[in-house]
Amino acid sequence: MENVATDENWKICFSQLAPGLVLFARQWTRSAADAEDVVQEAFVKFWRRNHDIGNRGLLYATVRSVALDLIRRDSRRARREATALSDADQSVLPAFDIEDDSQRALVAALDLLPGEQREVLVMKIWNELTFAEIAEAVGISQNTAASRYRYALAALKKTLPST
Q1: Are 13 and 47 in contact (CB under 8 A)?
Q2: How many CB atoms lie within 10 A of CB 155?
Q3: 26: Cβ–Cβ under 8 A, 6 or more apart, which residues?
Q4: pLDDT, position 139
Q5: What's the burial of 47, exposed, middle or buried (CB within 10 Å: 0-12/13-18/19+)?
Q6: Residue 4 has pLDDT above 80, yes or no
Q7: Where are the domains of the chain?
Q8: Which class would CATH give 99-163?
Q9: How far is 77 from 83, CA to CA, in rounded Å?
Q10: Which pTM value belongs to this model?
Q11: 155 Cβ contact list (under 8 Å, min separation 6)
Q12: Residue 88's pLDDT band (boundaries 50, 70, 90)?
């Protein structure tokens, strides 16, 4: 019989982490709905493999893996459809809800960052992961994660107007 307390812990964990995971998944998906699907699929995979819910780095790695799988599936589909349609759009850009000019400027500055730096920045700032968790999720060293974060912050500082 399943442990009800464990199931309840997973539900609580999902409700707490899902918003940050969706934001993280949005880096690769074309829509919020796709990002939500990626997070749900990743969380189910994580849960079925009986991973520790406290291992956020591995959870983010699972989200990243599922999102990249989605991109590969979409790319294969787009290549197949490209034979019928000459100019199919295959680009995947991060999408953010923009409410004012300062957010618009931030989105523009984030778009200028290399994907590796943007990925680490989103995980660190918006999802509050440690460099160890980021390193595990992305498959890099902690020092590389910290360097990408510093480079991203330096680039944003140069790009964004001072207030």
Answers
A1: no
A2: 18
A3: 32, 35, 94, 95, 96
A4: 92
A5: middle
A6: no
A7: 1-85, 99-163
A8: mainly alpha
A9: 11
A10: 0.55
A11: 109, 112, 113, 117
A12: very low
CB 112 within 8 A of CB 118: no
Check residues 74 and 130 and name the one with the higher pLDDT: 130
**Alpha-carbon distance 19 to 22, whole Å?**
5
Give the model's confidence band at 84: pLDDT under 50 very low, under 70 low, under 90 confident, else very high. low
Span 118-147, mean pLDDT?
92
Residue 50 zone, left/alpha/beta (φ > 0; ψ -120 to 50; rest): left
Cα angle at 18 between 23 and 35, to 5 degrees?
Answer: 45
**3-state DSSP call for residue 8?**
helix
What pLDDT, in 10s, does the model give residues 102-117? 777 888 888 889 989 9
Fold of 1-85: Rna Polymerase Sigma Factor; Chain: A (1.10.1740)
Q: Which of 133, 123, 150, 145 is nearest to 55 (CA)?
A: 133
